[in-house]
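Protein record
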Amino acid sequence: MKALVYNGTDRIALEDRPEPVVGLATDAVVKITRTTLCGTDLHLLKGDIRNCEPGRVLGREGVGVVVAKGAAVRAFDIGDHVLIAGITSCGACGYCRTQMYAHCVEGGRTLGRTIDGTQAEFVRIPHADTSLYAIPPGADEEALVVLSDILPASLECGRGWIQIRPGSQVAIVGAGPIGLAALLTVKRCSPAAIIMIDIDDDRLNAALRFGATASINSAGGRANDAVMTLTNGRGVDTAIEAVGVIETFELCEKIITGGGMIANIGVHGTQVNLFLEKLWDRNISLTTRRADPPKRPPPDESGNIRSELPGTRYFKLSQILDAYEAFGHASATKVLKVIVEV
């Protein structure tokens, strides 16, 4: 089969690899029909995620059809159309029993990191019964791809563990796919203001079309002042970091109000500063989290991001290197989301 293989920092190649086979009774093999790229893939290429060894097939999101299964797989049959969760989970360990599936002792964020992933023609999915989801007939695959990881991550950020209150003021730092997905979910909490911050005007314009109440281009280094002007010097109740770099995290620290919450979604590969000398007496909360994809958002939310997201580009698997190039230079290419057809 053809598969995208990680060969070290900034080195990927489309290669011929053996098709995966069922190894354990709980495994299933899925023929991929559509997959995608996300910002985490770019972090991985830069070397920010260090548990991926050269030779690994990348990707953790996708939809497809079950073509083989182990004897213990009972929830799915060969030929079933399925959504692949961005994590795999056994459903039985201590973490899974407390719904922290991303920390599963036998799974978690393994696809495309410690086991071969979905940017290929076929993928082996361990613990298939608790790591795959049935797709109803006629469902839109392009909408469902975002349910593998991006939208559940933002859903939990926007409505679950942050608990944004109606009438509050929210800033989302980063208007890429994950930040825009966070916007889609946050606006359902009825905040008084959603301020979108990014260095790309095209993405900021997309955020305004999605429902942001204000946008700030942070390229000039004065985003802090702009937020304070918009909030009458108070700052925001919730600051969501959706990039994963030093500057964006530190901006969240500067714009948060007393009693506020900083919610980190971005993937960080380098040390950031926590300015406790300024925050120690401010009643600030800081949350970090891995998304737990078994908590699925309603189908209408996936439809929203499918129908509203501008800048979606389509590639064949044979063009996946071009997809990475376009997605990695989004400011120039205007690409917000990539769909790879296999």
Observations:
- The longest strand covers residues 28-36.
